[in-house]
Design a protein that fits this description.
155 residues; mainly alpha; three-stranded antiparallel sheet; 72% helix
Amino acid sequence: QQDHLQGAFFKLLNVLPLHSGPPFHCYLAMLSMEARILENRYVQQFKKGSLEMILLCLIGRKETYGYEIITELNNSASVLGYAKEGTIYPILYRLQEAELIQCRLAPAAANGGSKKYYSLTHKGKEVLEELIEFWANYESCVNGFIATYQQAEVS
């Protein structure tokens, strides 16, 4: 993908006139936007990989329901971006299928329907503890690479 962007940039340089008029700036803005989209894809992948653990942590704090989870994510975890039902509910379903969480139905006072409340299972608590330990080791390892990169960059 990055080679594709660089190739597109060099093609533009060969085709565009050698002045700094609006067309040149427009193309540069488009390339910059494409680069951000490419970078954003890597950030999105990283977020997806940690979302299961985050949901297990939220559910492990207290029994909760889907809308409350989404609201909590959107209020306190802005770095994750906007949490959507179409992202969260499939993960909750997978966690339930894996027997990491369980749910119970309770009457919803507002509309007369029912709410699905989620809680961790014993297996879910064990898996969460393993994930937390892995995360601590992973974070330490990544931070080590970041530190050596930053030291090399300064030199």
